[in-house]
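Sequence decides. Our protein:
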Amino acid sequence: MGGNAKQPLKHPYPGEVLLKAKLQNDLMAAMKVADKLRVLTLRGVLTEITRLEKDVRRPATEQEIVQLLKRERARRDEAIEFARKGGRQDLLEQNQNEAKILDEYLPSLLEPDEVRAAIRSQIASGISQIGPIMRALRDEFGARLDGKMASQLVKEALGTK
């Protein structure tokens, strides 16, 4: 290799851009085109990541960043509900737009049918309690699992048994 050739960054998922780096790059791009809402949203997320890193005194993992994004997304859902109840159309639109921005960085969620199939296989293997089934689902699907939906589907499946 030549003396000035840059070595590619090594990270746990070859070929995949790290989520934090993607957020930082997208923030810079949003600043260049003066997309104020995207800048505000991404800065908030990056601030939370920095806060997490300072708390644990190490770089945040991809999984921790995804959990943080999910938490921020849930905050937007809550704010949307409050804005709707309060008749605040301006806040409703702002939070909906911020939620759409955050959705771009979250892994795609599983379809209910995929979760139902996994639940059936867990029940077929002899597991008949909510806790162990939910743990197995989280282990199998990770960040792609919508906990609320999965919990509801597990309760339905166990209720019919």
